[in-house]
């Protein structure tokens, strides 16, 4: 079976067409995929983090930068990943060099020590709501999707504080941005004594921090496909496509300007032409009055309340300002008005000449 140039061209064209179609379908799915929240109660910052970490799963929490200001953070949000080993009770924070025990054994040896603080270097993923994100994306999804494209990270220091309660044996671990001891913690763990079942994890509620939606992993998988393709096409045809789009936009703007200014010019021209060569104002009023009379006599058009229009027209004609404007219109330059003025002048001349003839 021979494969001629035409068949090869059709095959390449078909593959290209279906490839572009598949890309657009994936892009539409990525754009309009719903974003249901992962936690059943988004306004509660404890239920979802507790269930997630106690199950041994990773907890990704996205914090709003305007609530947790960090030096050198120029993005609108940053994300930190946590993971808790329930067997060893060791907490892992993204970017930290080692795992951290959620409760220090030193409290058992030294009963006079109630608080211990240690500074730990961590790394956060940072991102914005704009870029390729659409306005209706969840804040956490938008920040993380932005990171998948830009890959910006933010190393910073946190203060990890372990405290031991008094008689109630309440153990507590708090993770805060370093240098802000009175600010709300990024993460807090609390447990009564050694009872692991009483372990509770707390994070700030909305709008201070968010968890990714349930469909966030799907969007990540989609963007890993459509983003490299878009970048490749932009690098390959970016200059040509950019010039083409710029030319089309410029042409459309020029056409719009020509049509807009042309329409305005023609409207002004025909308005002046209609004023100069059109019927006089008196003739227009007479025609309108005649039409109203015909409509008023029509039985089927009684519901239009022609009498109300007639009354309004009479009120306008009796108005003093309208009469002054009408007087100005009578002195215009319409042919009908010129003829009427000539007739009036001739009548006045005849009236003035009549007494003189009688005297003679």
From TrEMBL:
Keyword terms: Membrane, Transmembrane, Transmembrane helix
Taxonomy, superkingdom: Eukaryota
Residue spans crossing the bilayer: 12-33, 216-237, 249-273
Protein's UniProt keywords contain Membrane: yes
Record carries keyword Membrane: yes
Official protein name in the record: Uncharacterized protein
Origin species: Hyaloscypha hepaticicola
Lineage: Eukaryota, Fungi, Dikarya, Ascomycota, Pezizomycotina
